[in-house]
C-alpha cells in the first residue's frame, strides 16, 4: 500500500539535513512518496550573521525544501521529526512547527499515523537520546503510533540509538558517517512499513 511520508526537520549547518536525506532514501526504496521540509529559522538576522555559514545554509535549505505546513501533516501517513539537540532538548524551530499542529490535534487528525524522531548533537553524549525522548511526548499527545528503531537491524549495533537515527558532528559540522546513514535508511524503511500496515488496517475496517 502506498504511503506518504513527511520528514519535518530543522538543520542549521546541514548535519541533521543529511540524516533526513538518508531517511528519505530508505523510505523511497520502500515505495513511499516523501516530502522533505525544513522548519524556518526564528532568530534575528543579527544572530544568524554572528555564526559563519548560517545564513548561507538557511538560504540553500529553504530553497531546496520549504517549511513544513499543517497541510503536509494532513497529507502524510507518517511523520518523522528531526532536530539538532539544544541543551538536551529539541530546537525551538522544530518545536514551533510541532506546536502549530494544535488545530489538527483538536480535530484528532493525526491519530493513528506513524511517527518517529531523529537528531544530531555537536559532541559525544551531547543530548541525542534525551532530545529524541523529549519529542516522544508531543507525538504521544498528538496521537501518533510511535515507531522506534529499536535494535531491529544490524546497523543499530554500530550507530544510532533505539529511539531514532543520530549523528555527532564534533562541533565541526562533520557529516553523518556511513554507519549513521545506514541507521537513517533503516528508519525510513521501518517507518514506511509500519505506516503501510496501519493504513491497511484502517482501510479494512
Extract low-pLDDT stretches. Answer: none
- Helix count, DSSP H or I runs of 4 or more residues: 8
CATH superfamily: Flavodoxin domain
- Mean pLDDT across every amino acid position: 96
| End-to-end distance | 15 Å
Classify the helix fraction into a percent range: 40-55%
Indicate the topology.
Blueprint: E1 4-9, H1 15-29, E2 33-38, H2 45-49, H3 54-65, H4 70-75, E3 78-84, H5 92-99, H6 102-107, E4 114-121, H7 128-142, E5 145-146, E6 166-168, H8 178-203
Parallel strand pairs: 1-2, 1-3, 3-4, 4-5, 4-6
Description:
The chain is an alpha/beta fold and about 200 residues long. It has one domain: Flavodoxin domain (Rossmann fold, 3-Layer(aba) Sandwich), CATH 3.40.50.360. Helices cover about 45% and strands about 15% of the residues. It contains 8 helices and 6 strands; from the N terminus they run βαβαααβααβαββα. It has helices spanning about 15-30, 45-50, 55-65, 70-75, 90-100, 100-105, 130-140, 180-205, and strands at about 5-10, 35-40, 80-85, 115-120, 145, 165-170. The longest helix is centred in the C-terminal third of the chain and has 26 residues, at about 180-205. The model has no long low-confidence stretch (mean pLDDT about 95).
Quick structural gist:
This protein is of the alpha/beta class. It has helices at 15-29, 45-49, 54-65, 70-75, 92-99, 102-107, 128-142, 178-203; strands at 4-9, 33-38, 78-84, 114-121, 145-146, 166-168.
List keywords for this structure.
205 residues; alpha/beta; Rossmann fold; 6 strands
Amino acid at each position: 500500500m502506498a504511503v506518504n511520508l513527511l520528514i519535518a526537520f530543522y538543520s542549521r549547518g546541514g548535519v541533521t539535513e543529511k540524516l533526513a536525506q538518508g531517511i528519505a532514501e530508505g523510505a523511497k526504496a520502500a515505495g513511499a512518496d516523501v516530502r522533505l521540509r525544513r522548519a524556518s529559522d526564528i532568530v534575528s538576522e543579527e544572530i544568524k550573521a554572528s555564526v559563519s555559514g548560517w545564513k548561507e545554509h538557511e538560504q540553500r535549505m529553504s530553497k531546496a525544501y520549504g517549511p513544513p505546513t499543517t497541510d503536509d501533516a494532513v497529507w502524510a501517513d507518517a511523520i518523522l521529526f528531526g532536530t539538532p539537540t539544544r541543551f538536551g532538548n529539541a530546537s525551538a524551530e522544530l518545536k514551533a512547527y510541532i506546536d502549530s499542529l494544535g488545530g489538527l490535534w483538536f480535530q484528532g487528525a493525526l491519530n493513528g499515523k506513524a511517527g518517529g524522531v531523529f537528531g544530531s548533537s555537536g559532541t559525544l553524549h551531547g543530548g541525542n537520546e534525551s532530545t529524541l525522548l523529549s519529542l516522544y511526548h508531543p507525538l504521544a499527545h498528538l496521537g501518533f503510533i510511535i515507531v522506534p528503531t529499536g535494535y531491529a537491524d544490524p546497523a543499530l549495533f554500530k550507530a544510532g540509538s533505539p529511539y531514532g537515527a543520530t549523528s555527532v558532528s564534533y562541533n565541526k559540522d562533520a557529516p553523518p558517517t556511513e554507519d549513521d546513514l545506514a541507521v537513517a535508511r533503516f528508519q525510513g524503511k521501518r517507518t514506511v512499513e509500519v505506516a503501510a500496515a496501519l493504513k491497511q488496517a484502517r482501510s479494512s475496517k
